[in-house]
Specification:
Blueprint: H1 2-13, E1 18-19, H2 22-28, E2 39-43, H3 48-61, E3 65-68, E4 85-89, E5 96-100, E6 105-108, H4 114-123, E7 128-129, H5 141-146, E8 162-168, E9 174-176, E10 210-217, E11 219-220, E12 224-232, H6 235-247, E13 255-259, H7 260-268, H8 283-292, E14 298-306, H9 309-323, E15 328-333, H10 343-346, E16 380-390, H11 393-410, E17 415-420, E18 425-435, H12 441-458, H13 477-490
Parallel strand pairs: 2-4, 3-4
Antiparallel strand pairs: 1-2, 5-6, 6-10, 7-11, 8-9, 8-10, 12-14, 12-15, 13-14, 13-17, 16-18, 17-18
Helix pairs in contact: 1-3, 6-11, 11-12
Length: 500
C-alpha cells in the first residue's frame, strides 16, 4: 500500500515534496541516540487542505503517519517515529495567521519557529512577547507547547497558555477546539475552556490528530525588568526559598536552577579536552572550572517583571532579602525600553530565543561547534530524562543524588536542571551527553537512561515528557485502557498509532 500512497501523494502535493530517496530518509531517521524505527517516506504538505488530503490517503490505504513540525526535538527523538512510519513534515505550514497586540495573542501554524515569531513581534515593535524555549530557536512554537515543553518568562507553562486548536483527525476531518468551534466568535482566541468537555488535552503528548493551527498567548513587556542571578552551594534551602517566592507571586517566571555541570557546558560549550582526556569530568577539575568563572554548585535566575519602577525595585528587595542568606545574588538591570535593547540583553526572559543551550549538545564532541547546529547530522549523543517532582528541597536532594551517582558510575557528567515552571511542581531535566562516534557510547547511554528512569519512577517521580526512548508511562491500568479506548474510536486504523 505504501507505493500506492506515495503515488497519490505525489499527485496531490508534487513530486518535490514527497521524499523517498535513501539519503533524506536516513537523515529523517537519525536522532541524537540510536534508534531502530524506519522512516518509510517523507511528505511535506503546504497547508491544512493538503494535510487533510494526505491524511485521507493514509486512512484509506492504512499507511502509518508520524507528524513532525520542525523535527528539532533533540534529545527526545528528533524526527524519528515511534514505529516504522511515513513522516508528515509540517515545516511548510509556517504562517503567522493572526495577531492582536492589545489582547496579547498570536495565531500560528506548526512550522512557525521561536525565532520567526520573535522577529515578527520585534519588527512590528509590539509591546508583547512570547515565552521561548531553552532549546533551539529553530524549534516549532506549537510543537513545543503540545509536548508540554517549558519556557522562560511569565508564561513558561507553555501548554497552559494556548487555545483554539485546529486539528486534522486521523480520517482527514477537521475540528476546532474551545470556543473556536463556533466559527468567528471573538472569544475564541481569548479563553481556553470553551463549553463542555475540554478536548485540547487529547492532542497534547499524543497522536490523536495533527494540529495545524493554534493561538498562543503573549505577555506584555514590563515597565521595569530586573534579573536576579544567583549561585549557591546547598540545594534544599535554595529550592524551598524559590518556592516561597513563586507562591507569593514575587516572580511569575520560570525559575531555572542548574547544577554546575549544566552551567559549565553552557559557559564553555565543550568538554575541556585540551586539559584532560579523562571522562567523566574529574571532581577537582569540575570544581576548578566553576570557581574560575564564578559559578556555584547550583546556579540560576529569578526574572522580575514590575508594573512600574517602584514595583520592580520592591520585587528586587524581596528577592535580596530571601536569597541573600543562602546564596550569592547579583542583579542585572533591564533596559528602560526592551524594544531598544540589543537582543543579547533581552535574551529569553524577554522573548528573544538563542541557541546557546542547544549548542551544549556538542559538549563531548572533539570537533568545534559548527555555525549551523545539527546534532543529528553531527552525531552528537544527547538523551533527555524529564521527570516531575514536588517543588520541595528534600525531593530535589533525592533526585540530585540519583543523577549524580548513576551518571558518574556510567561515565557521564551529571547534567541536571530543576525548573520551577509552576508554583508547586519542579521539572527535573537531566541530559546524558556523549559522542556517538565513540564505540559503545550509544548502548551505555541508553542503559544509563533506562536505569535512572526506573529509579526515579520507583521513587515517585514519573516522567512529564517522553521521547521515543522513554518507556510507556502506564500508571493506573484503567487510565491506560481509557486512552486505548479513545484511540480506537478516533483512529481505528492506527494511522497515527495513538499512545498514552
Amino acid at each position: 500500500m505504501l507505493d500506492a500512497a506515495v503515488a497519490r501523494w505525489r499527485a496531490l502535493i508534487g513530486d518535490e515534496h514527497v521524499w523517498t530517496d535513501d539519503e533524506r530518509l536516513r537523515a529523517a531517521g537519525t536522532a541524537t541516540f540510536a534508534t531502530t524505527q524506519r522512516v518509510l517516506a517523507v511528505i511535506r504538505p503546504a497547508n491544512r487542505e493538503q494535510v487533510q488530503a494526505c491524511v485521507k490517503v493514509a486512512h484509506e490505504l492504512r499507511v502509518p503517519l508520524h507528524p513532525t513540525s520542525r523535527g528539532r526535538n533533540w534529545g527526545y527523538g528528533s524526527r524519528v517515529p515511534h514505529r516504522d512510519a511515513v513522516v508528515l513534515d509540517l515545516a511548510r505550514l509556517d504562517r503567522i495567521v493572526d495577531f492582536d497586540e492589545r489582547m496579547g495573542y498570536v495565531t500560528v501554524e506548526p512550522g512557525v519557529t521561536f525565532w520567526q515569531l520573535s522577529r515578527f513581534l520585534r519588527t512590528n515593535r509590539a509591546r508583547v512577547f512570547a515565552s521561548v524555549t531553552g532549546g533551539t530557536s529553530g524549534g516549532s512554537v506549537i510543537a513545543n507547547a503540545l509536548e508540554r515543553g517549558d519556557g522562560t518568562g511569565p508564561l513558561g507553562d507553555r501548554f497552559g497558555y494556548i487555545c483554539a486548536l485546529e486539528v486534522v483527525l486521523p480520517d482527514g476531518d477537521v475540528i476546532h477546539t474551545g470556543f473556536a468551534r463556533f466559527g468567528e466568535a471573538p472569544i475564541a482566541p481569548l479563553a481556553r475552556w470553551g463549553v463542555g468537555p475540554y478536548l485540547d488535552g487529547l492532542f497534547s503528548q499524543s497522536t490523536f490528530g495533527v494540529v495545524t493551527r493554534a493561538t498562543i498567548w503573549l505577555a506584555p513587556y514590563p515597565a521595569r525588568f530586573v534579573l536576579a542571578m544567583f549561585n549557591a552551594e546547598e540545594l534544599p534551602p535554595l529550592i524551598d526559598a524559590l518556592r516561597g517566592l513563586k507562591l507569593a507571586g514575587v516572580t511569575t517566571a520560570t525559575t531555572p536552577v542548574w547544577n554546575d555541570v549544566k552551567a559549565l557546558s553552557f559557559y564553555f560549550g565543550q568538554y575541556p579536552w585540551s586539559d584532560t582526556t579523562v571522562t567523566p569530568l574529574p571532581t577537582d577539575m569540575r570544581e576548578m572550572m566553576r570557581e574560575g568563572v564564578g559559578l556555584g554548585r547550583w546556579n540560576g535566575t529569578v526574572a522580575l517583571y514590575g508594573a512600574s519602577r517602584a514595583h520592580g525595585d520592591a520585587l528586587r528587595d524581596v528577592v535580596a532579602d530571601v536569597l541573600s542568606p543562602i546564596a550569592d545574588v547579583r542583579f542585572h538591570e533591564g533596559p528602560d525600553d526592551p524594544l531598544e535593547a540589543d537582543e543579547a540583553e533581552c535574551a529569553p526572559n524577554l522573548g528573544v530565543p538563542h541557541d546557546f543551550s542547544a549548542a551544549t549538545t556538542y559538549w563531548r564532541k572533539t570537533n568545534p561547534i559548527p555555525t549551523e547546529l545539527d546534532p543529528d547530522r553531527d552525531r552528537c549523543g544527547f538523551v533527555w530524562l524529564s521527570h516531575a517532582m514536588p517543588f520541595d528541597g528534600a525531593h530535589a536532594g533525592v533526585v540530585d543524588e540519583i543523577v549524580e551517582t548513576e551518571f558518574a558510575s556510567a561515565g557521564f557528567e551529571p547534567n541536571l536542571a530543576l525548573l520551577g515552571v509552576t508554583e508547586r511542581a519542579l521539572s527535573a531535566v537531566a541530559a546524558i551527553v556523549y559522542d556517538r562516534d565513540v564505540d559503545g557510547e550509544d548502548e551505555r547511554a541508553m542503559q544509563c537512561h533506562d536505569r535512572v528512569h526506573s529509579m526515579l519512577v520507583e521513587r515517585g517521580y514519573p516522567p512529564f515528557r517522553r521521547g521515543v526512548q522513554t518507556p510507556a508511562a502506564i500508571g493506573e491500568p484503567r487510565y491506560a485502557q481509557l486512552v486505548d479506548d479513545i484511540a480506537r474510536v478516533i483512529d481505528p486504523h492506527g494511522v497515527f498509532g495513538a499512545r498514552g
